Protein: Enoyl-CoA hydratase/isomerase family protein
Amino acid sequence: MDELVHLTVADGVATITLDSPHNRNALSTQLRRELPEHLSTSIADDAVRVIVLAHTGPVFCSGMDLKESRSADSEEQGVQEFPAILEQIWTCPKPVVAQLGGPARAGGVGIAAACDIAVAVDSATFAFSEVRIGVVPAVISVTVLPRLQSRPAHELFLTGETFDARRAAEIGLINSAVPADVLSTEVARYTDMLAMGGPNALAATKEMLTSPRPDGMGPAFEHMLELSAEHFAGAEGQEGMRAFAEKRKPAWVPGAAPKA
Structure:
């Protein structure tokens, strides 16, 4: 059986490519199995600093494979597996960038929202079309709603209306909408910036961004002071400050000269 998800690694960037254009990269059983496997491999690889989720064909991801989902057993399996995929992306200690060269629907929107950064071609479209087939966009709401402004969330979840990439950027679903001929350049701009961050600092910052805050400013400041002190005193923080003083790139930056 041919692989539906591919992994390549170059210059510290792991590119995970959905390659199932015959069904618009729908979340079939096979794709749901292979995607988390490649995510796990990328997370475990110390050479990988940033992960990019890309695709072949004109559609980023059309959501669950509805042909499979007509079976009750397949539907239950998909419901059980997909949240774990979204959580794996959301909690990944390495930055994850979605590169959307085309539309996303349903679960595909949930995947894009789970990523730290999402860049789409300006011709891409999005929709929460679940209500129009009599189901609820429940699972994807866990990653989508933290990104969206409240009014657009109500409007788009309830109407199922299709909206374009420009509006997706305006309401917080994606970071930027760009012409097709500069999509890869824009993604590379983000991956280059992300690779400049210390691996431990990036992981801790991601956890900080997604974790609930303690109640009250006092406990919040106390927790943040502990986090700050831990990383200032850590080996990575010390190397970063030395590199700044010595006007060189820190050791973790791809291509940096070895420490003296």
Summary: The CA atoms of residues 196 and 253 lie 5 Å apart. The radius of gyration is 20 Å.
